[in-house]
């Protein structure tokens, strides 16, 4: 049963990572009686079990709650969850598009961070009513005035707009709900117009197919209708619709302004993309809602099975993962060194790591991942432009007019005491400072334009280590820019190992080559013969190291005839070898293919 | 019946050597009396269970057997004689220099000792300190003389690759050992295991963290694999020059002086091991006693037998062990013992091993000098 539209509030909670979003959301569920305190724990356990069983995310991402306002009326409060990482910015913006308001959480002990700002700007851009909340006020030794000052200075809030809360103790949480009722406007939209529902999230359910999480913008949706997705032009008989409260609860209709789910019966999330518009096949909307674009992969890496026989397992695992992750793209690829595998594209490094970890943990695939690369645009003398996402495919530079690489706009917030080292780092990463300002007297905000390729290689880790963990980072794609780039090849025992090739700036090539060969010398174990490791551009060798031949292994006596101990050791040794990749005559361990991510120890 | 080998483990030591992984315990432990009683119980029980077998060789290892008092040695001897048909061709006692006195030696002689295995480790003061040993270089020679005085052969243990050891140091150690004219030499590289063994629990004090710290520091300060390989080659050359036969990866002997007891291990023969941490191989089955003293006592006092070790694979074990010896693996004899299929499997695996590691001549596969340093490569190729 739907409320009248004036009593619906659609809102989300946005925050920098670790600023207490999850805890506060749990408190909201509890305080509104959506979930009891006892259920809260049961609920979480249950859903984790299920998630493990089915390998999908079941946790409701849009929960319907009821709340009695200070005016004595009951409101339908739809809380829409947002992903917390920069990689998933696009998803965040789609979640925001389903709301009229946002609670902007700021950790009382941390103040504003880079993603606080990025998320706040996104919310403002979408025209949301933003309610600033200083969270974790139960912590000792906090200075609320400094945080208030941050919010005033960077986002222009007034002190009387700022709420105080503690997701942990529950203090101030009721006031947040009242503020949502009073400050966030009810949804607008035309109930009589053809249905337009924004898909802001989706998950795959083994029984119901793709379940779209939607916000009905115009019109209404009844059960047993045939639906149409405007971007993918897919039609389907809808299986079920309902709301999460917090479990999926089937209803008969979703009204204009409401938030809920639609079990589409479609078989792949790729057919039901986040950002797409869902309408009725019988009475389609003429125009899609603004803002749909496919999630664009920014980072690419080769995924190869350690054992060639596992290729099919890897392919099937990727297929299954893609069912639930529309942002994951991949296609078959062949490497001379690694054999048959896949080149996969990701939203960012975190996304890559998540996929890699899931493949290894959930699908038990022993994987070799190559160093991540960005997508380059190459204009040849003949005038055609090709894009490549694998350094090994860079054509001969004598045929190339220009190579362009993606640049990002990065925002870094850092204590003023660490600005120097962070500027050194960013300059070393070819960044140009475009703006510098102060969030508060103790913290500066730096804006840099930087090549994405530099950001994805240990920039974040270095940022954290050079600021003792205090710096925060956010970035977004800006544009493609021409650059003087070269392909650096690595030769192991005289053979080019294509999976180790990287594209780097010409001026940095010699340094990177030295660091890379020296790191590889550490990572490649001694073999039965000397192994030369060279870094070269074309025929020009820039650096050379040698892994000396192994001269001895463990000689140890047989402890009182204990051959078992010895055999265990040998079996371990043999297992270790199995996990390595034979390239020519040389055994190369898995992590060597990611050597380029681990050069920082050797950098000046 | 050809008889079996008998290994008797005496865990007590005056101090714990920080590199050692054998089952050891402080000589002053309050459990000492209980241990010896349990050992005698185990000896008589095993002797009866095996039908009082003939014992060909006895090896008293440790720990430091030379710390036993004459009365303890005597009761051990009596127990052994009543449990086994004791007509051994060789009785070895391990000893630390500076623990042997005339009264103890006399007791061991009465028990039938023929051979003294002396943990000299180094003749360099710096070496002994680097290894955390408590004796002095000058303690070795009197111990050798004393053993010879009662008609025993002497074997010396040396350790190389200790932090700070130079080629010169090692040459001096080898010269000193050769100058003493010992019948047998074992030379082991300092190899530091970085996982605790059960026996750690037997010692009071800092426990494993202290040992681990010491080992990591020693490892870091050591000569590394290349350095150790050079020292090993140096020993091979030096000892060959003085007529020692390099009959096993880490063992050298003058003619007729190989250690018969250890040869039983390497030929994958049968032996009974009694005492804490001891291993046995009887009737094709391997088994062991716990290395933690209290666990061992508990088992014996409750009448429990040894812990079976399911990892015995006779064909594989035999091949791996045989390759340790200079005689290598005789494929036709191996085929008679384990069948043609096992023989062909081993031969094929060894053909695939790096050609510089093994030589096959006249149906015998032997490790080359390089293969002795890289024996694990060869052994690993035999694994299924």
Strand order of the largest sheet of chain B: 9-10-8-7-6-5-4-1-11
Gyration radius of chain B (Cα, Å) is 21 Å
Q: What is the assigned CATH homologous superfamily of the largest domain in chain B?
A: tm_1862 like domain
Helix content of chain B: 40-55%
β-strand percent of chain B reads 15-25%
CATH topology of the largest domain in chain A: Rossmann fold
Task: Describe, in plain words, how this protein is organized in 3D.
The complex is a heterodimer of chains A (604) and B (384). Chain A has 604 residues and is α+β, with helices and mostly antiparallel strands. Chain A has five domains: 5-183, P-loop containing nucleotide triphosphate hydrolases (Rossmann fold); 196-280, Elongation Factor Tu (Ef-tu), domain 3 (Beta Barrel), CATH 2.40.30.10; 299-369, 2-Layer Sandwich (Alpha-Beta Plaits); 377-483, Alpha-Beta Plaits (2-Layer Sandwich), CATH 3.30.70; 486-602, Alpha-Beta Plaits, CATH 3.30.70.2570. Chain A is 26% helix and 33% strand. Chain A is built from 13 helices and 33 strands. In chain A, the strands form seven sheets. Chain A has an eight-stranded antiparallel sheet. In chain A, strands 2-3-1-4-5-6 form a six-stranded mixed sheet, with helices on both faces. Chain A is globular. Residues 42-60 of chain A have low confidence and may be disordered. With 384 residues, chain B is α/β, with parallel strands linked by helices. Chain B has two domains: 4-266, tm_1862 like domain (pyruvate-formate lyase- activating enzyme); 313-384, Arc Repressor Mutant, subunit A. Chain B contains 15 helices and 17 strands. Chain B has helices at 32-49, 70-83, 102-111, 125-130, 140-149, 167-179, 207-221, 224-241, 260-266, 293-301, 314-324, 331-338, 340-352, 369-373, 375-382; strands at residues 4-10, 12-13, 25-26, 54-62, 85-95, 115-121, 153-160, 184-189, 245-248, 251-253, 271-274, 279-282, 285-288, 307-309, 329-330, 358-361, 364-367. In chain B, the strands form four sheets. In chain B, strands 9-10-8-7-6-5-4-1-11 form a nine-stranded mixed sheet, sandwiched between helices. The two termini of chain B are 33 Å apart. The A-B interface holds A 526, 528, 548, 550-564, 566-571, 573-574, 577 and B 7, 9, 21-22, 61, 186, 188-189, 191, 225-226, 228-229, 232, 249-250, 264-266, 271, 273, 277-279, 281, 286, 288, 309, 311-312, 316-317, 320-321, 324, 354, 356, 372-377, 379-380, 383.
